[in-house]
Amino acid sequence: MSPAPGRLWIKDPIAVFGEGAERGLVVEGRTIAELVPAGAEPAAPCSVFDASRHVVLPGLVNTHHHFYQTLTRAHPAAINKPLFPWLQALYPLWARLTPDDLRSAVRIALVELLMSGCTTAADHHYLYPAGLERAVDIEVEAAREVGLRMTVTRGSMNLSEKDGGLPPDAVVQDEDAILRDSERVLNLFHDPAPGADIRIGLAPCSPFTVTERLMRETAAMAERHDCALHTHLAETADETRFCEARYGCRPVDLLERNGWLVPRTWVAHGIHFDDGEVERLGRHGVGVCHCAASNMVLASGICRTVELEAAGAKVGLGVDGSASNDASNMMEALRQALMIGRLRYGADKVTHRDVIRWGTEGSARCLGRDDIGRIAPGLQADLALFTLDETRFAGAHDPIAALVLCNAHRADRVMVGGRWRVEDGQPVGLDLAKMIADQRQAAKRFA
Predict the structure, then answer these.
(1) Nearest alpha carbon to residue 64 among 155, 1, 144, 191
(2) Residues 220 and 303 in one domain
(3) I want to staple 153 with a disulfide (CB 3.0 to 4.6 A). Which of 203, 205, 369, 376 is the partner?
(4) Helix, strand, or coil here: 313?
(5) Which Pfam families has this protein been placed in (predicted)?
């Protein structure tokens, strides 16, 4: 019999991060049709991709990023500073951002993520200087071009220096403009259906950059449109002090009194929670994105991942902005989460399988998705395939563990929705050299 149209057997990989797929899996259309256990064959004839050199993971899911920051990596104005001074140094530079700058930055961030094995990303774009009112549209266009799934969060800031907030006036918008544009992009782009390529989230930036009214109105809009809510929360002790001085409460209390302690919410960082707050977040099913690299660079602290997950919170991973991480690599994010987790909890309390799970299924749950993040029949065919041919893997015995412990950082093949988007380590159908040249040219304006 000839192969059935559209059926591809990813055959006999070295290892698969999933049960019952020892001989690989079958992709049909955009989804995983079946798993092939040891000693078995697919149920029907298939075309074959020989995966005998590959270790197969579910596509990695990045739940927090700031794509525009690829323009200000390792910037002298911000090196060696904690969060608040770091932001104050960079806000005036970011105020120069134009649509062309953003387009270049977003493409680079997306391709960098894709090449690391990431198939879904959430970007938190909160910066809206004059002329950048269509930032979400630019990100959606770039995501479709590169081929990643995205939750593009329509971020916002309306509390500037003159109001007692942190950002300068030039990068904030008024409340009504924010709400109008949030409604616009939800109506244009948000797709809540399973298998969606683009979803919209709503993401007031942080307690020190937005008003309580904006948080309440945003939560109500998210409920009407069935979309996710996102914000930075409890990243630094400075933030806690700001909330106590301005609002008379801690950051988690601020979420609760504005209608944000709900399962559609996921927060970035989540470092400075006390035991009671960990329990409350878990009880309400809130997600927390652990950004290990950024938290180490800015010396913000360590997310309480183990306690949060035990309490019932969803735990995912994110690379965070390319100016506080200086990379957009999800495999590096897994390794950093493993190392900092072991430092905090002990060598046997956070395993390589834990961080892979956080960076796939856990991250998907943070985004409100149950159609990605695992290798299982009926789920989207989002896959990352890694080889073990480099010197860094020489002598490695456990292939799944080796990807994390031996510091894999680049996938050989990446599939999104049944389509190869990376082949032989290179993005398919994209002029990567031109993208890099365009981004370098744009970055000169931020020197």
Answers:
(1) 155
(2) yes
(3) 203
(4) coil
(5) Amidohydro_1
Q: Say which residue the tokens 């209608």 belong to.
A: 259
Kindly state whether residue 438 falls inside one of the protein's structural domains. no
Q: Based on the domain organization, do 181 and 297 belong to the same domain?
A: yes
Cα–Cα nearest to 17, from 297, 359, 294, 327:
359
Compute the residue count for the chain: 447
Given a contact cutoff of 8 angstroms between Cβ atoms, the answer to whether 55 and 14 are in contact is yes
C-alpha 314/C-alpha 337 separation (Å) is 15
**CA–CA gap between residue 124 and residue 135 (Å, rounded):** 11
Per-position pLDDT tens, the chain of length 447: 345 558 999 999 999 999 999 999 999 999 999 999 999 999 999 999 999 999 999 999 999 999 999 999 999 999 999 999 999 999 999 999 999 999 999 999 999 999 999 999 999 999 999 999 999 999 999 999 999 999 999 999 999 999 888 899 999 999 999 999 999 999 999 999 999 999 999 999 999 999 999 999 999 999 999 999 999 999 999 999 999 999 999 999 999 999 999 999 999 999 999 999 999 999 999 999 999 999 999 999 999 999 999 999 999 999 999 889 999 999 999 999 999 999 999 999 999 999 999 999 999 999 999 999 999 999 999 999 999 999 999 999 999 999 999 999 999 999 999 999 999 999 999 999 999 999 999 999 999
Reduced to 3 DSSP states, what percent helix, strand and coil does the chain have, rounded to the nearest 5? 40, 20, 40
Same domain, yes or no: 400 and 309: no
For residue 109, what are its two tokens? 């961030």
For residue 288, the SS3 value is strand
